[in-house]
Amino acid sequence: MLWISEKDSGQSEALNKGFRRAKGEIIGWLNSDDRYRDGCLEHVAKAFEDNPEVDIIYGDYLIIDEVGKALKIRREIEFNAFILLYLRTLYIPTAATFFRRRIFEEGNWLDEKLQYAMDLEFFVRLSERGYRFKHIPHLLADFRMQPNSKTCSFPDRQRLEHQQVVFAAAPIFRRLNSPGVRGFTLTFLRSLACIRRYSEKMLRGYYWERLRPNRLV
After folding, report:
1. Which helix (H) or strand (E) holds 135?
2. Which tens digit of pLDDT belongs to each residue from 42-89?
3. 62, 100, 181, 208: least CB-packed within 10 angstroms?
4. Closest CA to 146 of 29, 35, 37
């Protein structure tokens, strides 16, 4: 294990440094507040072995509080590029996401100008370039919600940068000059994405799952 602490321009640059130093064929993205669950790496390795055409694997996760108490199981859906781009929040959890090394060998890095929605922009860019995503139905990681995290501390900055990424990535917004029309269109597309995502989760029974130890598998 290698641990480095040095100055950088922010989280995106620090992550890129880590990706460049990584030597394995499978590379993960784990922030300091989060942790992998037992069996995570075995599930991921098997998924990549069974699906050689897949470039990115992501799974489900558990939301925990600042002291590690389990709060909620978060089950996810199969990859959908429309939902990825237009859902109000990023539904692919970075803590439970793993990449083949070839993604970085082919020159794909985080945009270091972004500090809140760099994960969304990265995933959208990978999707547009034809890289293949796959969801696996296993709890892979614990995602920690705590008051001092970027997610909780700067929600307005996160929402603004998320919106900027969507406007830059979606072709439809390049033809819309009116702020009012752009806002209405974004709201409409977000509503469609929300309906599609939550309908799929409801059909799969995710909302009836209870947080019990025997379900955390």
Report:
1. strand 133-144
2. 999 999 999 999 999 999 999 999 888 999 999 999 999 999 999 999
3. 208
4. 35
